[in-house]
């Protein structure tokens, strides 16, 4: 829908097109889209034509093909056709998190170990299986020389310390593919500072040389940041245009349940179906994809200015419900998850998020500094025909791979452990934890080892990293990666994380990259769209809360160099992130949140849908596919201090002491089910209300802390 999602995707597209995206657009998102649909109708995108010629399918089934129709709505129809180029699809060895690390059915009654084993696909397949060889590089392309043979006139430059500015590329002659790149992974202007000062340093039309490479890269960053700013501004304007523009339009279904529209302009004859009509429609097999697309656009437009545009007698919640239902069928989610994710964003932005999940993220690799330097690795890969560039200023080990004539997961450099295929987002928790040479570090849920090996490298193979994972099968790929990357300071073990610190404790730093639902990596694992239920989220959240307390208790508060815990997930839901961190803060008064040190990312929620969290939750960071062009991710950093005995009157502290004692005694500690139950019930009530049903009266809330103590 908005240009924003399109701008940041990893889809290869000509630079010209990317620049087009930066054009200031018309103010009103809805109007713009409506107009563009018209033009799209005159000149439908190819895939729309194809599917139109075929028997009608349900939206979810046809979406892959029909998706271009939405892109027409974004104004793509008039843009130059991108160069034919397949996106690399591979299983990320780190955040193969998707299917392999996501939640599976859990037997609540089984014991710790059995349960932990049953939670996840037993996948050893952290290793890269696809390859960039799959890239369909346009035959006869004028830049084939870049891909086919060694790069000419490579200027290796000096072995400067500052490797960031020394990527060894000097491409000669014809226009380079380096200029036809998709937009980069960047922090957006809205949540990070951008340095635009260098952007004019270099003539963008000239060939890329080693000298101008960094400036080019910065200019790209700056341009993308500017575009992002424009997009954010557009979004703000669109929302301000609505008199209803609550801070969070997604919440409006709760707020405005009974409010009715004033009978605004139904300019295109759009009539919102009633609940009965929707049911009828479903029985008939659902609407055709064009109807769904149009309805989604209309609902977004109307919800952007509900008071003016909402039809008389219709409640805001009816539009919201329709939109969620259409999102679910169009993008292929179950309605529960569609609603859960929808609620995270203002309406228009939610669509961007869902759109971004349809596009693969950029392929990225992390230089293994135990074996090589980034500039040398870049040189070696360029010589093999790999088109790459540094990821961004925030990492000096990451490279973004644009295209390659060789399988990127099977190059001699890969086999020799010079790099790890790793999602850019998964660099973040390690950067935040910042393990130091000589320290004792625990990676509590570590397979297949993307972060373990990163930490080992930062520690320069000194000290020790305990790489644990409950899933024994997955520790095989972990061990393989540890060997391949030459990590000599890693001890691999396989315990349920909840057995720490009983197994071993006293770590300077702990990373808990928790098992999660994988809602941040839907573009890698579409099964998440349909296989997550409400129960899964509450069980996961429960497990995460248990793990985080054990992680905290495994940190040595007296550590001379550290005393830190980083909690991360590749999920964007609040239950798995802020709710878990907030819980930890309440249960462990000896920890506090500190700045992650990450340069970008949106602040974590301090309140969400009626629930208030600790103010310091704003120090945690959220990353989104549609904003940062990386997997959805969450990072929180804690400083663990010495525990002090707390006096009785403080119920929460009391709980903490009890739990602490229980943990130390090796007992499974009290867990606050009553509290979770309250949230589950509240959620149910909201969804009933949204569906026009009257929820039963609230049951008396359980006295939270006391319940935990008693349990
Ligand atoms: C998000 S993945 C970890 C990815 C890893 N940190 C990396 O960077 O490659 C979560 C991991 O948690 C493991 N896991 C699940 N339940 C666990 C538990 N109770 N204790 C320890 N590990 C667990 C899963 O087997 C899975 O490998």
UniProtKB/TrEMBL annotation:
Residues 53-62, 701-711 have a biased composition (Low complexity). Gene3D superfamilies: Sun protein, domain 3, Vaccinia Virus protein VP39. The keyword Methyltransferase applies. S-adenosyl-L-methionine binds at residues 445-451, 469, 496, 513. Transmembrane segments: none annotated. Residues 32-52, 63-81, 111-123, 213-224 have a biased composition (Basic and acidic residues). The active site is at 570 (nucleophile). Its main location: nucleus. One of its GO terms (cellular component) is nucleolus. InterPro entries: MeTrfase_RsmB-F_NOP2_cat, MeTrfase_RsmB-F_NOP2_dom, Nop2p, RCMT, RCMT_NOP2, RsmB-like_ferredoxin, RsmB/NOL1/NOP2-like_CS, SAM-dependent_MTases_sf. Pfam families: Methyltr_RsmB-F, RsmF-B_ferredox. GO terms for molecular function: RNA binding; rRNA (cytosine-C5-)-methyltransferase activity. It comes from the Eukaryota. Residues 353-641 form the SAM-dependent MTase RsmB/NOP-type domain. Belongs to the class I-like SAM-binding methyltransferase superfamily. RsmB/NOP family. This is Nucleolar protein 2. The lineage of its organism: Eukaryota, Fungi, Dikarya, Basidiomycota, Agaricomycotina.
